[in-house]
Amino acid sequence: MRRRGPIAFALTLSLVVAALIGGAGAGSCASGTGAPVSTPPPTPVPPFGSPSPFPTALVTPSPAPRAPRLGARAAILEDLDTGQVLFERAARSRRPVASVTKVMTALLVLEKLSPGDVVTAGRDATGQTGSKLGLAAGERITVRNLLYALLLQSSNDAAVALADAVAGSAPRFVELMNERAGELGLRDTRFASPNGLDDRGYSSATDLAAMTREAYGHSLFAQIVRTKTWNIPAPSGPSRHIQNRNALLWLYPGAIGVKTGFTSPAGRCIIATGGRGETRVLAVVLGEPGEPFDDAATLLNYGLLEFVRVTLIRLGESVGTVDVQGSPVPAVAGADLSALVRRDLLGAVGRRLLGASGLTLPVAVGAPVGTEVSSVAGSPLGSVPAVAATSVPAPGPAPTALSEHPLAALIRLLRALLRAVLQPFL
Predict the structure, then answer these.
(1) Burial class for 371, CB neighbours closer than 10 Å (0-12, 13-18, 19+)
(2) Which residue in 24, 146, 155, 399 has a CA-CA distance of 20 to 30 Å to 391?
(3) Secondary structure E strands in 192-278
């Protein structure tokens, strides 16, 4: 049975989004990134497939600069490339996150193994329940194919097989997951399994966004999560045809990833990414009681349609002067700064120079002398160091009279004495 949103997706909005975002992202590949809006096909269940479990339309509000209205319990929208936060709701709340846990599993695998490495599936992997690739005990399969199964089909047996390959066992792999979370500064995260089915692990929208940005540092991750379908050889018989569960790859022009998840305690979850031109945004939706794809598309629209990238500060431009012990030191920007600014707030962008404390002369050219801060409507957008444009020396000692030669002093003394003696006769 096909599931639909509560109302049909507005045709006019579809045309606007398709015109503005179509073709953005990854370019030509099997995933069809940037293709026109289409409907996810039936899931590839033999022999003829089953009705698609995905929605066939999106329900999103008309583009507007106001903050999005969502049904999700927690959410965040960020610039995928910089981490700049564009919108957040309860983004630090700790929640079970179901199969989006597999993003951390994929990250560790990409850091520890090579895609061409061959893994032998153990009985702990083949005994997994829920979504499965159908690994056979003793089956030899590449890390690359297991990653596709993990991230497209959300295969629980692939998650455990990869965990065993990295750490020897799933419990030891979970320890590595939590160690890596600590290294990334994910303070709201604790994992309990490599697949997220346990519902004992938890994370937050903020942490999942940071984790996803780290995973995007691996080109293979970006390639896999934008792929719609993939064929994986079986030990015997035809290849296993798997399909991505992220319906946005069909329904939202410009969608380029990432991962869905669902358990009853977690609700419906999705990490979604989309691109327009050189701008890429990342949305995390957690605990949506209804359809998560609508919330994700609403956030992607907000980021891609309502924000524009602005160069706020340029390297080397003058930013003013800093007073150092009474001497003005001219300063320039030590780096470029750009950020996404909401279109209706472009006129509210401001800057100010904050001089560093405790500075003393002399100041060498290029030395840090403060910080140039940019903000919009009073909210900070970012900052760059301010550095001295020229060298400013320390003040020299006060001028003093030159020391007099002893002979000159003697002659001056004799002249004074001679005038004193001769004065009565003059």
Answers:
(1) middle
(2) 399
(3) 229-232, 240-243, 255-263, 267-276
Query: Considering only CA atoms, which of 166, 155, 163 is closest in space to residue 128?
Result: 155
pTM of the model: 0.81
Furthest CA-CA distance within the chain = 141
Question: What residue spans in the chain does CATH classification 2.60.410.10 cover?
Answer: 314-388
Of 45-54, 260-269, 323-332, 360-369, minimum mean pLDDT range? 45-54
What is the model's pLDDT at position 150? 98
> Where does CATH 3.40.710.10 sit in the chain?
11-43+73-307
d(CA 275, CA 253): 9
Give the CATH number of domain 314-388: 2.60.410.10
| Beta-sheet pairing, 255-263 with 240-243 | unpaired
Contact assessment for residue 78 and residue 205, using Cβ atoms and an 8 Å cutoff: no
d(CA 32, CA 339): 29
Backbone φ and ψ for 352, nearest 5 degrees, come out as -155, 150
Of residues 141 and 422, more confidently modeled: 141
3-state secondary structure of 416: helix
In order of 60, 120, 240, the CA distances from 168 in angstroms are: 45, 12, 26
Give one DSSP letter per residue of 370-412, joined into a string. Answer: EEEEEEETTEEEEEEEEEESS-BPPPPPPP-PPPPPHHHHHHH
User: pLDDT, tens digit, for every residue of 23-71?
Assistant: 333 333 333 334 467 777 766 544 444 455 678 889 888 888 888 999 9
Q: Return the structure tokens found at 41.
A: 């096909």
Q: Is the pLDDT of residue 269 over 80?
A: yes
Q: 88, 28, 23, 38: which is closest to 275 by C-alpha?
A: 23
Q: Known catalytic residues? A: 99, 102, 154
CB neighbours (10 Å) of residue 127? 13
